[in-house]
Amino acid sequence: MNFANINHCWGTLIIEELSRLGTDYFCVASGSRSSPLVIALAQNKKVKSFVHFDERGLAFHAMGYAAATKKPAVLICTSGTAAANFFPAVIEASKKKLPLVVISADRPPELRQTGAVQTIDQVGLFGKYAQWATDMPCPDTKIDPQFVLTTIDQAWYQAVRNHGVVHINCMFRQPLTLNQTSEDLKSYIKPLNRWEKSQKPYTDYVTGFESVALPIPKKIAQRLEAIKNGVIVVGKISGADEANLVLHLAEKLGWPVFADVSSGLRLGHSHPNLIHYFDHLLLSDKVLDKLSFDGVLHLGGRMTSQRYYDLIQKQNPAEYIMVLNHALRNDPNHQVSLRIEASVTNFIQTVVGLIKPRKDSTTLKLLSKANKSADKAIEDFLAEDERVNEPCIARLVSQLVPESQGLFLSNSMPIRDMANYADFKGKAVFVNGNRGASGIDGIIASAAGYAKGLDKPVTLMIGDLAALHDLNSLAMLRDLPVPLIIVLLNNGGGGIFSFLPIAEFKQGFEKFWGTPHPYTLASAASMFELNYSQPMDAGHFKKVYAQALKAQTSTVIEVITNREDNLKTHRLLQDTINKSI
Predict the structure, then answer these.
(1) Residue 387 backbone phi and psi in degrees, to 5
(2) What does DSSP assign to residue 68?
């Protein structure tokens, strides 16, 4: 290795070590202070890079990539407010337990707290939302080069081991370019001869942490068997193999399964234990009068449905067993009686053989019958009217999205409509969304990163306010190697608030919560060179969606709806479901 100066040397060591660790996707926001890192990145032929002008969108893109690949993307920015723009995505990645490596360039210590341009206090910038952080000193030949490599190795291990964000704050003095200096850098890096020849990371970490041994599995199995009338609740889990294990366990216990749309079990699975429309059924007095759980087995992440949490809080079952692959609390009702830190796969494989098979519970039989009635009611209701409405679009997307492609669901109404109205007879797809902090920021960028990581086409369902919030990220789609189909539900404001009690506050509801606007994305799609359609009815939507799939280029399909009509449609559909049960 040949280096122009010590900054170039350290920058090269950092990028090369990250590459050897397997973090091959670098997301870069342009700037001057980060030049030693970016020069090294440009010179490294083994890695892939992505450049975007908006640091906030860039960070969500990196997070979406991590969500798809389950390995860290690397974010690089200059000093000052650039890193602060990463903060929303850092929070989301932290809440979702996604690995992310943030490298912020910084001014040297002699410029801190002096009023120097583009200088802020970046040390500990992300607070508790970073699993691990370090303030790297300015590159110096008096500091062993091994220090650089072991620091990067530790950062990577912390990100992967703890499923979270790490922050490396790198101070650089001038020169920031390839100006030749007089340091003897060949002698400086001699201690790295073994590393340079090996093509492996400097420090090896044993990462067999995915399989956590379960304590006293027989007692856990006994506690499950002691539950007479239980339910399995499934949040975000790791994939199809884990989903099949969940269904196998449900068969053995004879329990119903409430699967969140993020679990991968809601779409493309018609297993008899799955209660696809449980969120609707929990609004039916006929069902609630006969529903009583004395135990819950909660596998994976949290649920989107607030009705589920309300029900369980009211019933307060004696046993609430939760299995998650990290140590953080996920118990908003404070009801968990047994918390098991393990992967869902390891948990089920350990206990399933210790459980005696049971007949289907009476609750499963009750819910299965009601579930079939709800499915038919939704299908018949939506088939009667060709006009586009938001439940109709969610159901059509669930029916039309091709198998093994991606589906990214924005927060507020899109994820709820897909959870409540999706046709489970559609294809099995990869489902994701930003359900950590559940904000509407960075959704387009996250979906683009998710598509890049999956290396498969992705359909994004998004509301108008979320789309307007992330308009800059449409620029990412032009060079995206796989198409992103954006199904934009535009009801001219914040549609979800019409469903909340605040809607009764007529004096200021429309201005402060409804947030009306006159915008469509037709001109924005044209500016960013994207295909655009605005279907007028369900048949037209099917046609333009099929065309978007065939075109293999990114497309915006904007569906114009009315917020008042949307509220009426949801309520009328719910009444229809209740009558059908």
Answers:
(1) -70, 145
(2) H
